[in-house]
Specification:
- The protein has 428 residues and is of the alpha/beta class.
- The chain has 2 domains: 146 residues, Leucine Dehydrogenase, chain A, domain 1 (Rossmann fold, 3-Layer(aba) Sandwich); 167 residues, NAD(P)-binding Rossmann-like Domain (Rossmann fold), CATH 3.40.50.720.
- 44% of the residues lie in helices and 18% in strands.
- The chain has 14 helices and 12 strands.
- It has a 7-stranded mixed sheet with strand order 9-8-7-6-10-11-12. Strands 1-2-4-3-5 form a 5-stranded mixed sheet.
- Helix 1 runs parallel beside helix 3, helix 3 packs across helix 14 and helix 6 crosses helix 12.
- It is globular and about 55 Å long.
């Protein structure tokens, strides 16, 4: 999650400070928005399958809820840090704001590796997380969701524990639940499809047809897979993907210059998106070092895994032909790398715009739960497309009129909306 030279929260603050200066925010609003409203640090003791007790560290950070209940996922990761969670909570605030949904930003996490935990042990962590946060979260205050290495089953365990503690039924308390248990159709596809809805609109702006483009993708989890699915449906060709190999503890890039086959790679991958090396080789894929995804001679790069992937060192490896980057991951590009991308004229669809499909569909799920009326998948995806297209148009319009980098334009819209809400409430 973090190394000695990279602190995601400092990056998030730096991005905010830059735009806050342009907007000339007063010191009170600036001071409020550049840090979380509240944080909770706690421990979760779990009786392991071998009879021992192991203590896991957990977090919930609420950045801002001026525009509505805080919203944000819960991550399970062995390298989770509080600064990662702080940064992601801030980015969630901007994400909800830029797509104009009435929610604020939050994020949670547990330092653990689900690869090495039984389902019973994972369930105990989920229930323990709720027991520790129950006074802080709820359907009208803070609505969690899945994130890295958490899924619909984890969310359902958390919902059940919350309802046990509160003595009621609150299906809108948490999103990302299984369909049939309050989950929304289309939620699985939402983040990846949202990336491509924005990518599609960016290509229109550049006057490029999707079927004339190639792409390289980092990640092979949910976001990456559905982004690949819709992108190839539009006629694009993905030539390489990079993913983590659990056995070797490194990432590899799998390349097929004629274009990867999503279905065959899905058939040889595990539930965490790891691809079977031997089977991939048998299917004609080249296995390259993990960082090679960034060096491919393609039109489009889609980072769809973790933060800090396009940094001051790696940005120099990007091929000359790359025209567009659609950020499916949170915080994949550092500020110094951004400067290089600007100079090269690469069109960037910033993370909190491009990957906002997930939180938008989570909002749809919350609405459906509160109404107790559920929409068909086509309705969900149509509404999602409308939201993402409108958000891109608003950001692109201000970027063109004011000659701004897309990330700066997106920040201006998002921060302005939250700052207005803060001032109207009389908080600053």
């Amino acid at each position: 999650m973090e190394n000695a030279s990279y602190n995601p929260f400092r990056v998030a603050q730096s991005q905010f400070d830059k735009v806050a200066a342009v907007l000339e925010l007063d010191e009170g609003v600036k001071g409020l928005l550049r840090q979380p409203s509240r944080e909770l640090h706690f421990t979760i003791p779990v009786r392991m399958d071998d009879g021992s007790v192991k203590v896991f560290n957990g977090f919930r950070v609420q950045h801002n809820d001026a525009r509505g209940p805080a919203k944000g996922g819960i991550r399970f990761h062995p390298m989770e840090t509080i600064d990662t969670v702080r940064a992601l909570s801030m980015w969630m605030t901007w994400k909800c704001s830029v797509v104009d949904i009435p929610l604020g930003g939050a994020k949670g996490g547990v330092i653990c590796d689900p690869h090495h935990l039984s389902l019973r042990e994972q369930e105990q962590i989920c229930r323990g997380w709720i027991r520790q946060t129950a006074k802080l979260v709820g359907p009208i205050s803070d609505v969690p969701a899945p994130d890295v290495m958490t899924n619909s089953q984890h969310m359902l365990w958390m919902l059940d524990e919350y309802e046990v503690l509160t003595g009621g039924r609150y299906p809108g308390f948490i999103t990302g639940k299984p369909v049939g248990m309050g989950g929304s159709l289309g939620r699985t596809e939402a983040t990846g499809f949202g990336v491509v809805y924005v990518l599609r609109e960016a290509l229109k702006t550049l006057g490029i047809s999707p079927d004339k483009t190639t792409a390289s993708v980092q990640g092979f989890g949910n976001v990456a897979q559905y982004a690949i699915q819709l992108y190839t449906r539009l006629g694009g060709t993905v030539v390489a993907i990079s993913c983590w190999d659990q056995a070797d503890k490194v990432s590899y890039t799998y390349r097929k210059k004629a274009g990867i086959n999503l279905d065959e790679l899905r058939a040889i991958s595990d539930k965490f998106g790891g691809i079977d090396q031997k089977k991939a080789g048998d299917l004609g894929y080249e296995r390259l070092p993990g960082e090679e995804w960034l060096k491919q001679d393609v039109d489009i790069l889609i980072p769809a895994a973790l933060e800090n992937q396009i940094n001051n060192a790696s940005v120099q490896s990007i091929a000359k032909g790359v025209k567009l980057i659609a950020e499916g991951a949170n915080g994949p590009t550092t500020p110094d790398a951004d400067e290089v991308l600007k100079q090269r004229g690469i069109f960037v669809c910033p993370d909190f715009l491009a990957n906002a499909g997930g939180v938008t569909c989570s909002y749809f799920e919350q609405v459906q739960c509160n109404m107790n009326f559920f929409w068909e998948k086509d309705d969900v995806l149509t509404k999602l497309d409308t939201k993402m297209t409108a958000a891109f148009a608003a950001v692109n319009d201000i970027a063109r009129r004011k000659k701004l980098y897309m990330r700066d334009a997106a920040y201006m819209i998002a921060i302005n909306r939250v700052a207005d809400a803060v001032k109207q409430r009389g908080w600053a």
